[in-house]
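Propose amino acids for all 396 sites.
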């Protein structure tokens, strides 16, 4: 494979994962936590980046060296486990895709004044269009890269306009006033939870970047992906912090929109529309692609009609929102389950790393295993807490 082509694929996989993570929920949670934690939210971002890198490097390396998708690795570890993991990922991907479509609809409303449902329908058609062209993989990579750059550049502009106290943010990143564990888990879940961490790993596998010789490139792509998502998170945090530090009120109905509007007036509000739309549609594409990649090796029909299945997945997500509206209870319920997908998936991968029938004579670095094990334990405890407390709240 040509060097230029390989570099493009590695960057495409990184942007697919990063833009999958940067969705409407990402924009909202970053603003809300900045409002409550102020400069100390920098510490939450710092810790979550370390955890994200540890989880993603482990998972992507083991997918690459085994040359198998996560569900097939899980079935090799324990028969039926891959089907269970696939069911969790697909359910989470579908539910969150409904939320992403809703976010795209709201963005179109901000930009053009159309109803959210009409906006959602048009956005769904754009996402479907990507998978109807002959070289869907290349189009998807390029779309993710362009939209990723657009989001970052526009958010940088708003950050500078908001004029945040950067010095205070830097100090509190390392010496926070308070530590919010739930915020850390929410950020980790929003960046590498559910389907997101597999988006780039499965994309590299589809593109033929696999095997032990590809591990340096895979590791670099995994870290780049977290870097892109984290850069967006940091700039958005600083933009929100600049507004909050000035004592301006954040609208609870749409927190990130009010940050952009306070920073740059009506122009800022329209910029938010572009950022929200880019974030939502790239997340729709990433969720659909990755969710279907989890069932294509378990079903010959899906494998044969791969792109058609992705189109159907996006169409169902869009129609559910257009016909019913945002199903908040489903989103919250699956959100609780989503917190548990990362420790299950990462735990399975760490076990797989020591099974010769899966990885041959590959020796997984001990520090990565220890790093991964700590993440599994921490995320299991916090994910369990979310699950136990989230479901009763849902049905009150």
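Proposal:
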């Amino acid at each position: 494979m040509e060097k230029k082509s390989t570099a493009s694929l590695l960057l495409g996989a990184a942007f697919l994962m990063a833009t999958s993570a940067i969705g409407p929920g990402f924009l909202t949670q970053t603003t809300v936590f900045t409002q409550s934690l102020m400069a100390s939210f920098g510490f939450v971002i710092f810790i979550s980046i370390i955890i994200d890198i540890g989880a993603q490097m482990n998972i992507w390396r083991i997918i690459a060296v085994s040359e198998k998708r996560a569900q097939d690795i899980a079935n090799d570890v324990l028969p039926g486990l891959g089907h269970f993991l696939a069911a969790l990922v697909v359910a989470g991907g579908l539910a969150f895709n409904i939320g992403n479509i809703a976010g795209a609809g709201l963005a179109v409303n901000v930009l053009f004044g159309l109803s959210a449902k009409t906006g959602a329908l048009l956005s769904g058609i754009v996402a479907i269009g990507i998978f109807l062209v002959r070289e869907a993989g290349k189009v998807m990579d390029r779309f993710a890269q362009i939209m990723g750059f657009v989001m970052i550049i526009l958010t940088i502009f708003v950050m500078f306009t908001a004029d945040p106290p950067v010095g205070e943010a830097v100090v509190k990143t390392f010496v926070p006033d308070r530590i919010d564990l739930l915020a850390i888990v929410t950020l980790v879940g929003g960046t590498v939870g559910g389907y997101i961490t597999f988006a780039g790993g499965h994309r590299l596998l589809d593109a033929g970047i696999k095997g032990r010789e590809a591990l340096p490139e895979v590791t670099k792509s995994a870290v780049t992906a977290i870097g892109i998502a984290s850069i967006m998170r940091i700039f958005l945090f600083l933009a929100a912090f600049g507004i909050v530090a000035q004592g301006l009120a954040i609208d609870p109905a749409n927190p990130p929109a009010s940050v952009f509007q306070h920073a740059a007036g009506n122009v800022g509000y329209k910029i938010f529309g572009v950022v929200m739309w880019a974030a939502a549609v790239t997340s729709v594409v990433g969720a659909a692609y990755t969710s279907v990649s989890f069932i294509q090796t378990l079903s010959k029909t899906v494998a044969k009609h791969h792109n058609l299945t992705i189109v159907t997945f996006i169409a169902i997500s869009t129609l559910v929102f257009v016909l019913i509206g945002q199903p908040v209870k489903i989103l919250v319920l699956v959100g609780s389950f989503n917190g548990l997908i990362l420790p299950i998936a990462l735990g399975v991968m760490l076990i797989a790393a020591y099974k010769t029938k899966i990885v041959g004579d590959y020796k997984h670095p001990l520090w990565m295993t220890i790093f991964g094990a700590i993440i599994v334990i921490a995320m299991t405890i916090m994910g369990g807490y979310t699950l136990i407390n989230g479901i009763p709240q849902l049905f009150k």
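The chain has a mean pLDDT of 86. The radius of gyration is 20 Å.
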